[in-house]
Amino acid sequence: MLNLIDNLREIFHYLRQYKARTAMTMFGIVWGTLTVILLLAFGVGVRKQMSINMHGIGEGLVIVWPGRTSIPFEGYGRDRRIQLNEDDMELLRSEVKEIIHISPEFRKWGSTIRLGDKINRPNLSGILPEYSEMRSIRAEPGGRWLNDLDNEYKRRVVFIGDKLRDFLFGENSNPVGKYVFIDETPFMVIGVMLKKTQNSSYGSRDSDWAFIPMTTFKALFGHRYVSNFVYQVSDPRISKSVQQKVYETLGKKFKFDPKDKETLGIWDTTEFDEFIFYFSLGFNIFMGLMGVITLMVGGIGLANIMYVVVQERTHEIGIRRSIGAKKSHIMGQFIFETFIVIGISAFIGFMLAIGLIQLLTALPMGNFKEAVGIPVFNPMVAIITIFVLGAIGFLAGYFPARRASNLNIIDCLRY
Amino acid sequence: MHILMLLREFVEDIKSQKTRAFLTTIAISWGIVAVTLLMAFGEGLSFRMREGLLNAGDRIIRVYGGQTTLKWEGLPVGRRIRLTEDDCKVIEKNIPQVSVAVPGFGEWVRLKVNGKTSSTYLEGVYPEFEFLRRTFPAAGGRFLNGKDLRERKRVVFLGGEIAKELFGRPDPIGEIVTINGIPFTIVGTMPKKLQTSMNNGPDDRRAIIPFTTFQSIYGEKYLNEMIVKPARFEEGMYVEHEIRRVLGKKYQFDPSDERAVPMWNFIENEREGGKIFRGINIFLAVIGAMTLIIAGVGVANIMFVVAKERTKEIGIKRAVGAKRSYIIFQFIFESLLIAFTGGTIGMLISMGIIKVMWMIPVQEGAMEFLGRPLLSLSVIALSVILLTLIGLLAGLFPARKAASVDPVEALRYE
């Protein structure tokens, strides 16, 4: 214990004696730490933002459009139309366990939505309540999404996108409870979609969309077959095999070849998840490597100075050894000193990085943030940084310390 | 003469302090590796992204029919605006800043060959489409031409992916494919291209026929879209406004009504994207530069040590008549030499790494963007400038300290 304090006092005395040198050495480590953290945090932020942008349309979402057969099967010719209704969705729900949500989508083009003399032709869909779960649709406070009772009683209620609301009722107004006309039928607005970032879509962006209960849609427009349906799988990684099961299940019922991809047009948005995963993995590894290089440059500077220190203190080492200090003492002393320098510098680096990230978070840079996100400081980033710091500190301390401890006592004293 | 002597002294010094010289040089090398790789990576990424966008639309504006959302001259909102082929001529005639305006039809169809069927998006276009949307033909084929258009030929240009799907090879030139039951001769296919922005699937899966042929088969009057290319891309925004003004006059809608004729402005997209990538590149360059500065500080640190160690030597030199400037010059010379030696090594390492990365074959997906760093001249120039600056500064301060020593004191120094 006494030894440690003694050691510390010695180190600080020494560091103070060489202020400029110490400051410059520490600068390298401080900046290196800052760089590692910033680069890693930046990578995490990019990944998060890409994911948010992509998942605007929905998470783990698969969209399916019925098509025509293109391969003759069991005596049937090709070019048969595959037409599905909501019962087939229920069949899929019970047959394919990996599907956690599924909803038919009845759609119609050219229907008008009107309030007074304001007319618009939005995308109009009739769907089941669980649709919102899959498509990341949330209601603004004060409104609600469609529920089971709406569907059961064929209620004339409509949920509208935020842009559609802006057009019909004026920006940021609350239209819940008011009536609009869909074609010639009055519908009550029950909710407005909470604004979201969305960078892919089918039909149009959800902000321009109007949703009504499936049963209402069917009763009103007399559609029998779905335009498309959407489902969500429990885990994006098994999406490919779930697709196969969808082909098989419906193929059995409608007698088409499960290998006939023309029967169902499938857009699997989880393929983008894979892209995002590999892109951000590559991006983060690259960023991390660059950060490590920077820190290493700082570490090399430190090692270099430690060698100088060893040289300068040769005489001192000789005296210590001759009055009984062991090799391990000398070694410990130098490694300890290295770690003190690294520890203080790393602490400053961490503080700077956290401050800078907070500053970036607070700065308004709308467009830029929407594209690349903001750096995120998380435990993972901290752990990696500390690990790298430890490794570099050890290397930067070990080699000079080894040289110091291996010096010949007689030579040292003569130096 | 002087230089040779300095060089010899430098070499002697290095020999006596091998570890130190090695570490200092290596630090600079690493710094240069970081700086060049970071910038090359950023440049490669933004080049790819830009390429992907330009491949979807080469500085064009795609104009669609829409519906009015603003009242105008006593007319109500919600009126449909639909574009026709004539509108393209109107635009070309009335807006001198427009170099081309061409119409396009579109429809989902089924292509068939020997029992193989594939659904895809069919477009009916003018020959200019080739340059506007970068659908360049692979060797051995051609894009649609003026004659095809005039004679309403039943010829089709296919994306490489769909050609491969139907024929099992990417170049079925001269073969017949039926589109919704009507036979068409394939005149060309498109090699695979990087495309980051798309609607109705990528161009790799398109089937493209002459505008007139499409019109006579499907009897369409209203366009799916109109493609407008401004003569100078700086005027993209102006042209967009002019299109609304000209069409607004013809169809009587408010020129500020953006939904009457929605537009997809690739020029604006490119500008927006460019801004973001410039931001990323600056971020990466700053990080890289700071790495190099750390290395530079390391050099300066060591030069200070050297200055101290050589105090006596400097004293002797000064005593026998060496000027201050000579001492300063010697230090700067040494630190520059270290910087450039390390820099050259670092640059070679970077080039090697980039070369190896380019040799790794990439499939579609993330590595298409990440695995292709670009070491451009500006990156190299910037690194060399930084390196020189750092070498100079890292030498200057220790040199000043060394030179300011009083010769008498220096001689007494132990």
Description:
- The complex is a heterodimer of chains A (415) and B (414).
- Chain A is of the alpha+beta class and 415 residues long.
- Chain A has two domains: 2-55 and 274-414, no CATH class; 61-268, no CATH class.
- Chain A has helices at residues 2-17, 19-54, 86-95, 131-134, 148-152, 162-169, 214-221, 239-254, 270-312, 314-322, 327-362, 366-372, 379-406, 409-414; strands spanning 61-66, 99-108, 113-115, 118-120, 123-127, 157-160, 179-182, 185-192, 209-213, 228-233, 264-268.
- Chain A has an eleven-stranded mixed beta sheet.
- In chain A, a hairpin with a 2-residue loop joins strand 3 (113-115) and strand 4.
- The radius of gyration of chain A is 33 Å and the shape is elongated.
- Helices cover 55% and strands 15% of the residues of chain B.
- Chain B has 14 helices and eleven strands.
- In chain B, strands 4-5-9-6-8-7 form a six-stranded mixed β-barrel. A two-stranded antiparallel ribbon of chain B has the order 2-3.
- The longest helix of chain B has 44 residues, at 266-309.
- Chain B starts with a helix and ends with a helix.
- The model of chain B has no long low-confidence stretch (mean pLDDT 87).
- Chains A and B meet through helix 2, strand 4, helix 9 and helix 12 of A and helix 2, strand 5, helix 9 and helix 12 of B.
